[in-house]
Amino acid sequence: MELVRRLMPLTLLILSCLAELTVAESEGNSSCTVSLGGANMAETHKAMILQLNPNENCTWTVERPENKSIRIIFSYVQLDPDGSCESENIKVFDGTSSNGPLLGQVCSKNDYVPVFESSSSTLTFQIVTDSARIQRTVFVFYYFFSPNISIPNCGGYLDTLEGSFTSPNYPKPHPELAYCVWHIQVEKGYKIKLNFKEIFLEIDKQCKFDFLAIYDGPSTNSGLIGQVCGRVTPTFESSSNSLTVVLSTDYANSYRGFSASYTSIYTENINTTSLTCSSDRMRVIISKSYLEAFNSNGNNLQLKDPTCRPKLSNVVEFSIPLNGCGTIRKVEDQSITYTNIITFSASSTSEVITRQKQLQIIVKCEMGHNSTVEILYITEDDVIQNQNALGKYNTSMALFESNSFEKTILESPYYVDLNQTLFVQVSLHTSDPNLVVFLDTCRASPTSDFASPTYDLIKSGCSRDETCKVYPLFGHYGRFQFNAFKFLRSMSSVYLQCKVLICDSSDHQSRCNQGCVSRSKRDISSYKWKTDSIIGPIRLKRDRSASGNSGFQHETHAEETPNQPFNSLHLFSFMVLALNVVIVATITVRHFVNQRADYKYQKLQNY
């Protein structure tokens, strides 16, 4: 009895602690068990408002036995604004548990509406909160959908300087469970002004149910400009040449949706005109304030081909193809020039006089090595503005699977067998059909900077490797093949660099049409443009297991450990180390022998 009496206080203390622990666990997990009534959810769609407590760690799994994916949307997230993403977050996993692949993480620092999609019919999300005692609210909405079934007019890509788009079925009620994404991208140098003529969505203060989300950039990971719903007509403006618009709807209360239009605003300063030349077109920008002196807003401007019309925004833009719209192509020494003229469209045939000055803008792109020249001079009758600019042809180099050159190899690095045949193509990207590509020199190197050593595959248009075969001239493509090799005493990576000449195909005396020639003959022929293309790395398959990093990282490591002379200090250190090893080995062997000498075998006694 005395023992029981002494143990009684200890028993009561233990029971009290256990009760407090149970209460604390109940409070900490209240939203996991009370708000949802369970952790597994199997409805085809569900909306939940979670009121979260401090120090929670809750996990829910969404699953149904059907061949569909799950889309989960966190349209309203109010977490600890001072908490870190490590201590308070929402994680979404692809599969039946938090051990599955992580689809993404949400915290108070996120500047977008989080939306995740599973690859199958199961998805798991976990919410962890920190110890701060503040109000936390998360609105979660999920539904099952078939990725292969799309809603007509639900999203798309818009790339004109101005345009319009609407919600599906507009002005009729929008569809339920819709998730539509419109990507707007205009020319560089512009920004986008988006105007909603009408928005008629479900009214909610936080826009949790049906909403439009506008992002300042090319994707839904760009910064969120606004999240709107109800009946409003807002206007948004991007900071660059791309904008993304998302429409998300739930399973109830469908209304008219929205109607929107956008225009482009040229952002660069321009007083009169500007000209840029690319591989396939000339781009002319004309200031509207400059045209005001001619009582024109740009509508009556035309090229040599009057059917080619400009694009109008806060500026006038002509995008002139090198092989169209009346562009004149002229072959000159060491260059090819493209010229067109912008003028006012012809007056009515009934008019025989004018008292207004006529504008003529001559634009010329020279694909060569001259500097850019810009001249403006005024005549007594007309205003003539010459615009010259230096252009560049755009080339690229790629590996192909076979000599048909149909399927490009996209792997990088590309692992090959020693002596495997490789097929290489250099492509010229231009709209001018009268050009031809010639491979002047192609060489290989174990490093991307093409420092020594290098190995010539093609030189002066001639094959320098016994396995190298140069294909005949083929328009905008230069092609060759060779067998894979590796450099001795170097890393296994191989990079290729080709010097390319671009010529006029009609010039039968050009360097391109002469093919393989000796160096002494090269000076008598001409080419029109020269450029370099580089590709790599290419590696042997047996080195795949040792290449955990990229080829560039391997080269950096190799450069950080150069071969250095084995000096006297190194030799002395090595001798001391070797002597220590010998001494330790001798002592160990002697000790082992002595122990073996002390061992004696005894015959077991019979009992």
From TrEMBL:
GO biological processes: trypsinogen activation
Entry's Gene Ontology cellular component terms: zymogen granule membrane
Annotated CUB domain residues: 32-146, 154-265
Topology of this chain in the membrane: Single-pass type I membrane protein
Main location: membrane
Gene3D superfamilies, sorted: Spermadhesin, CUB domain, Zona pellucida, ZP-C domain, Zona pellucida, ZP-N domain
Signal peptide per UniProt: 1-24
Keywords on record: Cytoplasmic vesicle, Disulfide bond, Glycoprotein, Membrane, Repeat, Signal, Transmembrane, Transmembrane helix
Coiled coil: none
Name of this protein: CUB and zona pellucida-like domain-containing protein 1
Chain ranges of the ZP domain: 276-519
Chain intervals for the UniProt region annotation (Disordered): 543-562
Transmembrane feature ranges: 571-593
Species this chain originates from: Pongo abelii
CDD domains recorded: CUB (cd00041)
Subcellular location: Zymogen granule membrane
